[in-house]
Amino acid sequence: MEDLRSSLSAAFSSPSLLNASFCFPGLYKPRLDAGGLLKVFKGLIGSEELFAQVEMHMVNAAFEGLSLWANDHDEAASLIHRDQLRGLAALLLSPVLVDPGKPQPYEVMCRIMRLVAWMPAEGRRELQELLIDDCSEEEVLRSLVSRVRLHCDETVLRAHQMQRLSPEIWEGLMLLQLLWGTNEAIAQRLAKSLRSSEWPEADFGQSLAQTLSQLGKPAASVLGRFTLAPQVRPPVPSSEFHLQSLAEEKVPPELEFRLFVENACAGPITPSEVLELPLYAARTDYGFEYVLPSKMRSFMANRNLVPVSYTRKVLQVENHHAQVYLQHQVARRVAADLEVLPGHEIHIDPALLFFILKVHRDRILEDTTAALQKATPEDLRRQLKVVFEGEQGVDEGGLAREFFRLLSAHVFTVEGGLFDPLVAQNARVLWFNSASAFAKRFQELRVLRPELLRTTRASKALDHCGSALRVDCIEDLYWKSSMSSSISTFWSHSWHGDHRKKILTLLVLYNGRAAVSCGFFTALISMILFLFGGLPGLRRNERLEQASTWSLASGTVAASFALILWRSKERVFLDRICINQKDPDLKKKSIWSLPGLLKKSDKMLALWDDTWGERLWCLFELAAFLRSKAESEQKLDIKPTLIGPCCVAGFLTVFAIAVPFNTVPSNGQTRGVAVYVWLTLLGNVFGFLAVWALRRYFASVLALQEQLRSVSFERIRCQCCDLNHQWNGQELLCDREVVKACVVAWFGSQESFEESIRAEVSDAVVFDLQHHVFTRRRTCAVTSPLFWAFLDLSASWARVGGAGPELHEHFTRAASAAVEGLSFWLLVCPILVEYVVYLSRRFCRQATSPMREAFCNLGVLIMVLPLQALLFGCYWVLFRLNLPRLVISGVFAGEMLLVTAISSFIKVKAAKAAKASSASNGIPPLGQAKLAKNATDRAPQRRSPGPIDCGRPHVASVVHEWRVRESTEFWLAGVILGLVVYNNMPGLDVRFPPVVFKKIKNEPLVLEDLRQVHPDTYLSLRSLLSWEPEEELDEEERNAIFENTFCLDFVVTYEMNGATETRELCEGGKDRVVSYKNREEFVRLYCEWLLTQSVERQFEPFRKGVRRVCDSPLFNALHSAELELIVCGEQALDFAQLRKNAHYDGYQEDSSYIDSFWKLLMNFDLVQKKRFLSFVTGSDLAPVGGLQELQLVIQRNGDEPTERLPTAHTCFNLLLLPEYGDSSKLERMIVTAMHNAEGFGLE
Length: 1243
Description:
ubl conjugation pathway, 18 strands, EC 2.3.2.26, alpha/beta, transmembrane helix, Hect_E3_ubiquitin_ligase, elongated
């Protein structure tokens, strides 16, 4: 015992002896056996009796030895050699420094730290090198760090008790920083050794060499292939350097903020700077002393030694000071404006002192976006106050926490469109979506805002002769639309078509049935009035002295007025009316919501003309409608704009034929001949024009079929191409960028969509246009004036009257006229029209000259004459048989019914044959040999490009604006994140990878950062770096094998909006091959592109948004890991910590009721725990430092009998808890309150 005591005392009291002791024997260069020494000292401490006998002797010897080392700054200036400093490491490992709470060990450590502070820069660097070489074993370094940190905590604790910061604090931080640098240097040298072929390095100390040798040479050879900064963890985790006394707030955050502002605003000090810091002579309470420079005298300057929870509290102080400073500025300005004398009260609008954010819960994202866009930088730096519209309450922090919790669920999610869904799925983190969010919004088939879903009555769309469909209309028609939950019919049309045809077609489609009904009703009323003598007649012959023309005239006039004036109530969508033309923002949002509007539409009406099939937006609307509906729900109605003019012209033609039929004088014997002559002559005159129009129509249908069968995005026209991609002097992106992305997302690929158009849509559309346009029902509606003429004839004979046989004959003639009218109206006319349509479709080839075209039309008309002769010949033959008129009319009606049945049978057979031919040959049988020429001859003439903006502008005109909006959305996301930090919120429930915060702080990125975002790509690149040939080869052979194995060049290939894109990683990358020699450069450039360049357009606005709010000296001093913890909060929810710092009002902490309450909370799963935190605090996250930072207050709020639910004041973390009778009721009431609390009050 005596020998041990004397040996240790002799060694510790003599610096030269201590420097030479405890070294490995037999080495050329002395090396401290730190591991063996620590083991011996631990054994000494383990023997309490033995240690008690030698402790004081070792302490006294240490004091004596330290005084011999140096008594002042001047003596310490000579400590620059390793042999002079080795004993300090042994002294730091001595057992007497284990407990810094004792006075003597505390003083010894203070002397050691002061000695290190007195040393010159060369001495500190040499001491650090000594520790790296001789004390690199993890256990040894942990012991050194632990002892120095505990002493620093003790120093802070004593300063807290004395209410004075002593120089020993900063001297202790200097030594702790020196150990931090030692820890980092060991990790760096270990990484360097892993990359090196030499194992171990010659100049490594014995201790570090032993550490490296434990990995073995095979591991070194494998890891040595990773040339891009392999990540090696330091022996001691960074958390073991953090001062726990700061986490306990022994130094008030307000004091530290003042120290930081006074001494360290230039930024944090680095461990390498610590080695170079000189001492300065300064006056202190003890006289003139050498002290550390002011830059060292701040805890935040040594931020790597400060817990994040304390950093956050100091940051909160800084934020609060900034907010108060702005409020004082406002108060001074108001006082100066009002000329108020000092000491007098002034009333200031709270909106000037705070940033008051008013939002609705159901529109939280829209209201927040609008408010932040209007806010100035000064507004954003004011203290935030949140007001939920329609709710009572004052925001003292709880409302803001709840606001950010709700808002983050809208913004920081994949569904918001800002973040990449593939990365979220594969890496479980949020990463910026480099794809076009504009295309994504289209792909989602949703309406951005409910108020954008608007409809109008069809009658309003057709007001003022359809002015809404005119290109030159500049009137604001938005007032004609109103909000709706669905759309009955979506009108799809081309603005490059003839608006007059579209207007007439819509009038016929929506008002035609009402017009014919009104015409029939008026004709019948006129007939009745004429029969009873209410209306005068016209003399036609001797027997018909009072002939009627009222049914034809009144029916035609009534139908014409009804066609124009009828008010259809069907709710339709017309872009010019339902899209706001005056508000650019609403207009753009409506354009972006177009696919969603189509999804909400029950039916789509496509007004087809020559330009519809070649316009990009028309096909896009068709694709969106087909994509949004199941096959059974696809109500697609394609109507040619020729229907309207043809129907109106046909109606007027029949009227023109019927007028002379009812007004020209005739006798009974020649009436049949007169009918035949008038119908033949006038019908053929107007029929010539009809044939000409029909043949042109069917030729254009065949041209459409050719367009659809060869549809290609490269050939489809869009307005941006018509404008040569220039708009108001700015270059426009092409519409195809967005439309292609949507089509690929909906149909899998562009080719699939084009094939779907060719194989399905083409046949269906063309078949409908050829066979389902000129229907029998429409023919009957057009030829209704003919029947009204026969009604006049029937009324004329009925009014003649008479007695006996004469009366019978007159009524027979009246009845036969009605039957004949029905026969001609319902049977003869449809047969003739169907035959004319068939011949026009069959011979639709256009002639090369107008003269030949006229002869072709005449030829078709001549082919109709035999059928006309047959039909009217039957009638004339029956008439010549002198049969009773009623019998003649009945037989004629029967014959026409038979002919109609045969015609219908032939028509059905022809339609089936056409479908079969279309399915087998791909081209309808009509005009097969002439299709190509027809398509060429009838190709629509391109109009000169011009800026047409009629409610549905080309997307390229708003893509640039969308880019700006997209940047704004990322900027807003950054502002929201900045507001969370600036307003001292607990954090956001977001899963950003650490690389996001490194980019915010402009810290360098490494290969390991890629692993967090693209793990598959990271593994591929790591495999690329780890590849080695199987045998030793020269450089040229290795490069050749590598190139043949991987076949790579300096080009990156990626998917963008469904299309494959390529980008060169360097100049000439397409022609540069990746070889064994330059693979590291390829990996570096690839990582730089993935993490920086590919998302630069999205990330830069996000970073600027954060910096718009947070740009203070302390924020700039934060490390990325600290910022991540402050933003994301603590992920672990330890309710034991919450209970540890809870306070009670009306309850005892050790009561059985409180114990059962905490047992209930402890048994909650993670989701329930988050709900409870949200209910009590407004946020479901724990702040940095854990739940102990919340300081929950539980206040008694009544007892049994009660059915009162627990309530909470989230601003103060206060829970009002009634005392229930049993634990089951306690659980039921708490769970009920948690799941039903929203805002102020239970809903």
